[in-house]
Amino acid sequence: MSLFEGRRRPPAPPAKLALAGTGRVRGAVLALLALGSLAPPVFAGTLRGQVTDRATGEPLPLARVTFESEGTLEETRANADGHWRTELDPGRWIVRIAFLEHTSSVDTVSVAAEGEQVLDRALVPESKMETLEVTADPWQGVDDQPSAVRLDARALRSLPAFGEVDPIRTLQYLPGVQAISDISSGLYIRGGGPDQNLILLDGVPIYNPTHAFGLFSTFNADVVRDVTLYKGAYPAAYSGRLGAVLDVTTAPGADDGVHGTVGLSTITGRLSVGGPTGRGHWHVAGRRTYLDPLLDQLRKSTPEIPAYYFYDLNGKFDSRIGEYGLLEWNGYLGRDDLHVDLDADSFVDQRWGNRATSLRYRHDFGDATLALTGSISRYDGDTSVQIFTTPISFGNDLEDRSLGLDWNRDMGNRVLRMGAQTSFYRFRLDQDFNGESQGTVNETPWDASVFFEDDWRFGERANLRFGLRVRRFSEGERILWEPRASGVWPLSETTRLRAATGLYHQYLQLVSTEGFSGGDFYLPIDETTKPGRSWQNVLGVEWEPNREWRFTVEGYGSVLRDLVRFDDKQTAGDTDTSTDSIFLTGGSGWAAGAELFAERRFGNVTGWIGYTLGWTRREFAEVNGGEPYPPKYDRRHDFSAVATWKRGVWTFSDTWTYGTGQAFTPATARYSIRDPATGGVSEFGYVLPGEKNSARLLPYHRMDVAAIRDFTAFGRPAKFMIQVFNLYSRRNEWFVQYDTSAPDAGAEVVQQLPVIPSLGVEFEF
Predict the structure, then answer these.
(1) Among 139-143, 474-478, 589-593, 601-605, which is the least confidently predicted range?
(2) pLDDT tens for each residue of 749-759
(3) For 276-284, what is the mean pLDDT?
């Protein structure tokens, strides 16, 4: 999208004509043209501005700006930073600026020829107004990409949280999105796992977006401006994953001085501060757990209690370069550190984290925008285990250095987007046992791609978007074609049909452990294996009878081919690092389902209800006898309800979720092994597994509640928060394990978290 949209060029001068004929006729025509050229040309004036939220100071992307004068009506939209720009004929114009859930502004402006005026407006959120005159288009602010959901900072911060506001956990209440357990902030979207999701922070991939073993995500809500989730069939501007895209954008510093937030919760302390510079903004934030002293005291009497902490830091800086240039830097650093004493001579040390930085220059040419971006993202995880005198170590590093170029041109009813990106990777995986290497992987592949999108708009409520991405990966020297298409078409004044389709490939493979993200590691596939492939299709209907209510019904289906799965039967000491040795290859699968969504967006009580009916299957020749099986996250029914009630200085919120129990593989028999040399029977029994994931745990359900009270401290706004996780202490089932040490021991069901209350306080300055 253009940095300043809607620019209209001044009228062209009279053309010069080459005329044939007599000199007298030619002279007469040239004389008339000369007289006409003496009339002064009419040059347009420029009007530009930025649209922001008065309560937060954050920009309002896609705000609608209309211009009316003597029967002439023109329109433009703000870009992702809330900026807009247009050129108008001289005269008096009525300018209206509107954004969903905000009051509209109306101004009368006199435009002078060749002059430039600035019209910045801060719109008041509806929650801050007693009454609201509804003038905005009910569709404005809604992304025209099917299966796309956008949540701003206010929506993310209003819901109950497990000790810490978490954008990813908020998304888990949406239809089609689920969590695998109470301590998982991973996103399982439409039958796909977290390994099939592309996670971006200010356009930079984040390869392990979790803290505290998956309990929290890496995204500090204090710096998040908005979150956009593409649940499927995402556009050609993104690539590299088979399933979904989560695009997180951080907020710039405030325009009106230095402002910040200090917050304390049961688990962490937070500080966020930002403000303006001469021609831009700055914003920094950090958070850290402060349980270390308590855990250290507890470890004196109970050594097996772990020592643990995490922290993360965010930074953002932007500055205007000239009149139409913008330079932006973003940075992120996060780290987890765990130490567990198993006994006097044995321990486990584990450290993992992400580092990411990007530098982007964007220049506006009126009706076109050019952006150049360089970024570096790194994930590393290291585990050291000491068992008596035997050391064991495991390490994994992934570094991604990328360079991208994006060009957008807005031609009114048509937007062209083109871009190119090159990524250079470095993978390291090594294992050591008692000082001897058990296998090492060092790979340096690269990935290059170009994309093109052609977005046609028909009036205010219809659009068709066609895209193509072409990729080449160094391993195997394959060229991959990825066509994409989507469309939105009105069926009536309040109803729209939405559809999308696309082809996607994935080279990078995530090997994850059950419920413990700190042990995840990444590997690329090589030339011996085809990349994973998915074909996604989406079809839905959206009905918006008024600005208060919105209803959607959306069906989805995806076909997956050439899937890979980590081979957990590898033997120790196997140094073969080819893809065929590390992974099971040639897998296939599919996912299908339907989602229902009802949302109330205005009034004292707001919220939504979502329901998903879904199926997903996987098939590998080496698994389950070659028969299709459901992955553990196959969930037939998933229901969620979210409500927020504002009453005076109090805000109350409640969430309730219900889902089909998780799939697991039951044991069908127990057996022992006789040693043929001695005739003895093994002391410990073995479990014979049944059909893969053919049994289910009990259904999952949980209610969380929160109460937030606004007050004033030292003359500045503040909040006090009370939150209760799992209000009625439902001990949901997590997984099943079998005790083979006794012949009569059966299955043991490991339960999830009980009721957990938490307190928090937040001060603004």
Answers:
(1) 139-143
(2) 888 888 988 89
(3) 90
- What pLDDT was estimated at residue 365? 83
Residue with the larger pLDDT of the pair 611 and 167? 611
Structure tokens belonging to residue 500: 């999308």
Q: Got the DSSP string for 505-572?
A: EE-EEEEEETTEEEEEEEEE--TTSPPEEEEEEEEEEEE-SSSSEEEEEEEEEEEEEEEEEE-TTPPT
Q: Are 419 and 440 in contact (CB under 8 A)?
A: no
Which residue, among 268, 271, 246, has the nearest Cα to 260 in the 3D structure?
A: 271
Q: Assess contact for 226 and 151: CB atoms under 8 A.
A: yes
pLDDT at 743: 63
Q: Which of 167, 183, 181 is nearest to 229 (CA)?
A: 167
Residue 710 bridge partners (DSSP) = 719
pLDDT for 30: 42
pLDDT in tens, 673-727: 777 777 666 655 678 888 999 999 999 999 999 999 999 998 899 999 999 999 9
- Give the integer Cα–Cα distance in Å for 606 and 262: 27
Using 50, 70 and 90 to split pLDDT, how confident is the model at 468? Answer: very high
How far is CA 253 from its chain centroid? 21
CA separation for the pair 257, 181 (Å, rounded): 42
Question: 297: how many CB neighbours lie within 10 A of its CB?
Answer: 10
The string over 210-226, giving b where at least 16 C-beta atoms fall within 10 Å of a residue's C-beta and e elsewhere, is bbbbbbbbbbbbbbbbb
pLDDT of residue 35: 37
* Three-state secondary-structure class, residue 500: strand
- Cβ atoms 244, 230 nearer than 8 A: yes
> Which two tokens mark 200?
């971006």
pLDDT, tens only, 234-250: 999 999 999 999 999 99
- Please give the pLDDT value at position 688: 84
Paired tokens of 299 = 């470890």
Q: Distance (Å, rounded) from C-alpha 338 to C-alpha 349?
A: 6
d(CA 518, CA 306): 15
Q: Cα dihedral sign for 112, 116, 117, 122?
A: positive
| Residue 425, both tokens | 């990777």
What's the whole-number average pLDDT of the chain? 83
Residue 319: name the closest of 270, 283, 370, 365 by CA: 283
CA–CA dist 364, 409 (Å, integer): 10
Domains in the chain and their CATH numbers?
A: 23-128 (2.60.40.1120), 247-764 (2.40.170.20)
Give the least confident one: 83-87, 438-442, 449-453: 438-442
Is the Cα torsion angle 122, 125, 126, 129 positive or negative in sign? negative
Nearest to 77 by CA among 58, 93, 92, 98: 98
How far apart are alpha carbons 502 and 451 in whole angstroms?
13
Pick from 441, 565, 568, 554: which is nearest to 175 by CA?
554
Share above pLDDT 90 across residues of the chain, in percent, rounded to a whole number: 40
**What whole-number distance in Å separates Cα of residue 480 and Cα of residue 505?**
8
User: Two tokens at 636?
Assistant: 């037939």
- What is the per-residue burial (b if ≥16 Cβ within 10 Å, else e) of 47-78? bbbbbbbeebbbbbbbbbbbbebeeeebebbb
Start-to-end C-alpha separation, the chain: 34
pLDDT of residue 34: 40
Asked if 190 and 232 touch (Cβ cutoff 8 Å), the reply is yes
Asked if 606 and 618 count as a contact pair (C-beta separation under 8 A), the reply is: no
The predicted-structure confidence for 190-219, as pLDDT tens digits, reads as follows 999 888 999 999 999 999 888 876 678 889
Q: How many angstroms separate the Cα of 673 from the Cα of each of 374, 562, 569, 571, 682?
A: 58, 37, 19, 20, 5
